[in-house]
Amino acid sequence: MSQTVLLPEPTVREQLRRLPTRVGKKYFIRTFGCQMNDHDSERIAGLLEQDGMTATDGYESADVVYINTCTIRENADNRLYGNLGMIKAVKDINPEMTLVVGGCAAQKDRDLIRERAPWVDVVMGTHNLDRVLDLIDHAEDWGPITEVVDELQAMPSSLPVRRELQHSAWVTIQVGCNNTCTFCIVPSVRGVEISRRPGDIVREVERLAKDGVVEITLLGQNVDTYGRDLAIDGKRSPIFGELLRRVGSVEGVERVRFTSPHPNDFREDVALAMVETEAVCEQLHFPLQSGSDRVLRAMHRGYNRRKYMDRLAMAREIIPGLAVSTDIIVGFPGESDEDFDLTIEVVEEARFSQAFTFIFSARPGTAAALMTDAFVPDEVIRERFARLVETQNRITRELNEEMVGSTFEVLSEGPSKKRPEMATTRTRTGNLVHIEGDYSPGAFLDAHIVSAAPHHLVGIPV
Ligand code: SF4
Is the pTM of this model over 0.70? Predict the structure, then answer.
């Protein structure tokens, strides 16, 4: 029988003191969704390794499987239950395996997961990652357990970590979101905005730099409002621009990125901090979502096309060579042909280096999911989507071609997965550059760009 239980409160310090109990056992983590989930999975891996476990590369060889779920990306539910079905077959052969489902879908649909996949041992939410070991212990000793809480128990960044890349790290500066975008489930699964104290963040970055990390990505749902909840005794609250300057001046940190700012809250002080802090990269993710004022209003985005373009122009004027990426949703309820044409117009005008394009998918629990009368037919969405992708691919290719013949500092991520004789590297603007040769992860070099493809560049070392 599954039960919803709140275990006694072990502090994070108690978790950290715990002696390894699963030495020799293996874990496998499957992550769906965004960088916030990737970051949480690194923390789950850190906790499991602290308990003596090592990573393995598939369900079959794992003693513990952790599925980090998403509710945002298209088809998230189908993929989740498809995977859970597959794992059931493995679990039938190896009933000793402990299956944990965490993340946003678990936070939102805990009962549904129990109902549709009763073979899951632990269902846990997004706010209590620090409890994973206790919950696994409980499931092994007493049977299935569900623990989903509404209040954040521990900032993910305060937990141990196992990073995929040793030279690059994400640092959470804020969790939750106070906005009410009508298509988004984040506020209900991640809660209200909570900022981490600047001193904690800087100390973590200093520790990472001492460990050899040269690239930091600051992570929050709306980084521009960072610190607003931290005002104490009438003192001015910390602001994001100041945090960027402090993180960028930590010795050993060569590159700082952040995601995501919100066009409604992005101000000049952040652009100035970016240009005046050498380590902060000339890269801005600036989610547009739609080019139509009518659709933006229905989405509750808080800005219109003019405001978006003005802020983009301000950022570009202050930061030379700025590369701007974006998110766009196609087929939001009520989107007409004219609305979509306006989106294409903005894409042509803004010349984004990259656009993450999404087909609208109604997430239960969001306001947009109730706009059923205005849903756009699938075939119309597909046609618009293809047009958008074609437009953006052309622009990305043109921008990449403009880089041919120039030299850029790149940071190696190690051998390319598809062509191991090449190294995968990135420019400060986030462009992917393949270079022949063996460059260890974390190595800096200068690359002369010799050719461009729609999604990458090819360079030679100089
Ligand atoms: S700003 Fe909007 S889209 Fe982004 S997390 Fe908050 S509610 Fe969701």
Answer: yes
